[in-house]
């Protein structure tokens, strides 16, 4: 998060528009991978913010690798999310309005490895048995994904 951290030195905690990507990663049992985040103690999707010169697909792949140890072989665009639902105030006070490009991945390689600087745990969950403490910026993304599955 170098770019955002550099901006924070100038603007402090004031709201920023933060562009990023996340990955809805599904295993062969159609369970979704979530990470227990260290910053807010909530479960969320692997993802993060765009760095200078990156594409959103590159962000998704990089963040998936950094946070989980998994390599996405193929990503499918799910949706782009923004608006009031994506305002978030981090526990340390920084405020953001997220613009998130969500990708679906069910073609990946590797073994789960926890990024101990950001993640407490990684676990696959049945879509009908998600934890109750979902990270607020990820909740609308997960809800839309689950709702679209219901209406297929």
Could you explain how this protein is built, in words?
With 152 residues, the protein is α+β, with helices and mostly antiparallel strands. It has helices spanning 2-11, 56-68, 139-150, and strands spanning 16-25, 32-37, 43-44, 46-49, 71-81, 87-89, 95-109, 119-125. The chain has one domain: Nucleoside Triphosphate Pyrophosphohydrolase, CATH 3.90.79.10. The strands form two sheets. Strands 1, 4, 5, 6 and 7 form a five-stranded mixed sheet that branches. A three-stranded antiparallel sheet has the order 3-2-8, with no helix packed on it. Strand 6 (87-89) and strand 7 form a beta hairpin. The protein is globular and about 45 Å long.
Number of helices: 3
**The named CATH superfamily:** Nucleoside Triphosphate Pyrophosphohydrolase
Give the CATH topology. Nucleoside Triphosphate Pyrophosphohydrolase
Order of helices and strands: HEEEEHEEEEH
Count of individual domains: 1
